Amino acid sequence: MSLLEKRWNELADVKDELAERDWFMGTSGNLAIKVSDNPLQFLVTASGKDKRKRTDEDFLLVDEFGRPVGDTHLKPSAETLLHVEIYRRTNAGCSLHVHTIDNNIVSEIYGDQGEVKFKGQELIKAFNKWDEDAVLKIPIIHNYAHIPTLAKAFSEHISEDSGAVLIRNHGITVWGKDAFEAKKVLEASEFLFRYQLRLLEHKPYQLFKVV
Amino acid sequence: MSLLEKRWNELADVKDELAERDWFMGTSGNLAIKVSDNPLQFLVTASGKDKRKRTDEDFLLVDEFGRPVGDTHLKPSAETLLHVEIYRRTNAGCSLHVHTIDNNIVSEIYGDQGEVKFKGQELIKAFNKWDEDAVLKIPIIHNYAHIPTLAKAFSEHISEDSGAVLIRNHGITVWGKDAFEAKKVLEASEFLFRYQLRLLEHKPYQLFKVV
Amino acid sequence: MSLLEKRWNELADVKDELAERDWFMGTSGNLAIKVSDNPLQFLVTASGKDKRKRTDEDFLLVDEFGRPVGDTHLKPSAETLLHVEIYRRTNAGCSLHVHTIDNNIVSEIYGDQGEVKFKGQELIKAFNKWDEDAVLKIPIIHNYAHIPTLAKAFSEHISEDSGAVLIRNHGITVWGKDAFEAKKVLEASEFLFRYQLRLLEHKPYQLFKVV
Amino acid sequence: MSLLEKRWNELADVKDELAERDWFMGTSGNLAIKVSDNPLQFLVTASGKDKRKRTDEDFLLVDEFGRPVGDTHLKPSAETLLHVEIYRRTNAGCSLHVHTIDNNIVSEIYGDQGEVKFKGQELIKAFNKWDEDAVLKIPIIHNYAHIPTLAKAFSEHISEDSGAVLIRNHGITVWGKDAFEAKKVLEASEFLFRYQLRLLEHKPYQLFKVV
Fold first, then answer.
1. Based on the number of CB atoms within 10 Å of its own CB, is A99 exposed (0-12), middle (13-18) or buried (19 or more)?
2. For residue range C88-120, what is the model confidence (pLDDT) as tens digits?
3. In terms of Cα–Cα distance, which of C159, C40, C141, C129 is closest to C97?
4. B26 and C194: CB-CB below 8 Å?
5. Whole-model pTM over 0.80
6. Smallest Cα–Cα separation from D43: which of D98, D1, D5?
7. Which residues is B30 bridged to in the sheet?
8. C-alpha B180 chain-centroid distance
9. Interchain pair A99, B191: CB under 8 A
10. pLDDT digits (tens, 9 = 90+) for A88-106
11. Which residue range or ranges hold the Class II aldolase/adducin N-terminal domain (chains A, B, C, D) (predicted)?
12. Which residues are bridge partners to B94 per DSSP?
């Protein structure tokens, strides 16, 4: 099996798993995995496909500008430029963009503050935060309709080889050294978002009850 | 494979997928897919079947009045007239009627206003709303027990080849040029409804906290 | 295939489906299906089994007193007496007892009133309520630890061949003429409970916003 | 099949089932099953694996100090010491540590009180509480980053052969005489936690409405 096939299968497995959770509602979301560094080439989801099906047209290979490599009738996802920024600026090997109710609600509630913070929650260890007082910050950027502008705003928050950025009312983009790491960061983010929202629902009552 | 078989399989695939999400609770819901334009004929779910099972009695062919084509012991869904309205008035190829908790709650909360609006949410692009300021409106109609009256009220909101209408405390009906498009509109609607309800839960707290 | 085998398979299919929804948490729940009227014999879930697995020890045949028919090391579910009441008093062919979060919460919130009512919700049609003004009432009984006492309180609400009773903080028992009908009543009940709870969450906010 | 293989398969089955529920988000959670008493040896999840896949490197055998038995490149889960405490102090045969939103929220809301109590809920019978007035208490301990300190705090709540302890903002650890019992206690705990949270959401409204 070639490296291309290996990466294709890894990405297809991630897609199947996220699709099973209904994390691609309304054909939303897009995924990418790096295949080579020199030249920079990566697989990205083709536009307009049903992500609950597994076919040999789910992904296509693109270059460092997000343009298809070779002849193809497939169109790269409209948001391919965001993946380009990640592979240009870090050593990440996989990046995932997903819309969920939880990440959209968190991005709206904390949007004006430009970030959401987590502290004292075990799951922040998935972001390599091991101290008992460690704080995890996930930035939230404006959802520019113009993709190059969105990509530029996004790029300002990419420096580490693993990370996460929320786009307001649009979803999250995560990345990691490989598919396993990217998925770990995605799942930990979603857990933290849901935890935070549930806590907001319950803490007021608790205060009301105790005071 | 004939066109009839092809459409049957497409609709059966949609049914399987929605059934897996438990979107047909209590035998609710019905689905349709167009097979020919001249004469107008479409497949529609047969009444009283378990939608979690896949059998060769799940659908039957009906004409432009919703009457069975040919001899059959199967009875078309009681709400077949709503699908008739769609195929008569638009070029849609598939239509789906589904009861979920989210669409029922939204239909009740916004029912008196006759519609629910969405703005600034990425998923409205599934309705071909691409501008940053675009507004999506989904009408909400009264749930008349008399189906022809319901179909008439419903028909007043059908003009485009793709769309969605809520029936108060009853569910949503969506349509699109084919099964893929109809499902996309359905999923995007459900995402938006759940998003809206979750936001209503959290915004009060946020205001309370900030002010 | 004998009638016993046929009924066994029908009940096993229902069990598989409910298990997939996680409606048997902590080994809770029990199911029954009638096999013969003269003498009255029905299959009921054996005690202490993992309902996510399908084995030939999942059910056992019991008589009109809930006692095993023939030699067996299997023990009928502790709540078999409730199923006995149903088959003695009605023509029902299948009965299901299930604990869900929604049915437990509804049973507690409306417990002091002794019943929960639904009106103007399409899904009450699953209970054969077709008028636009029809009201569905589901009784809620006290959860007596002593099973014969519980069975007696339960029996006071069994007269129709299809129905549903909530046991406070314990779950719901539904019945219908066959497995298909019993499952329909169960699903419609769960839909209505979740709908009601979600509406309680949102109506206060709406009032707050509008007034 | 050897006893080791038998236990391996039992634990792998539990892992598959919990993974299907998404109870291992972000690679969280760890599981153990006892293989022998003299010397004490048990299987425990290897560190850094994807728990949604079933492989022959998912678990490894460790001794009474949580050290690998024999040569292996696998690393025992960082929290193996907690499982050690259970097998040293009780006759339990299986122990499960799982992070869910519900158990994390309950651990935070009731964390200052050091325990959460349940009464009058049918599911507490899964903890062998059969009286109508029985009270179930689940202790909540501080989430020490230093694992030996955490294990010591944890050990103070282990005396029975079956039980459950919450670690604040970290998850639950349950144990029972075998995999079936441990899973029953886990499921019953999660049911009770979700029930409790939902009740907190609804009781205030009810009071508001009635008073």
1. buried
2. 999 999 999 999 999 999 999 999 999 999 999
3. C141
4. no
5. yes
6. D5
7. B97
8. 13
9. yes
10. 999 999 999 999 999 999 9
11. 9-197
12. B33, B176
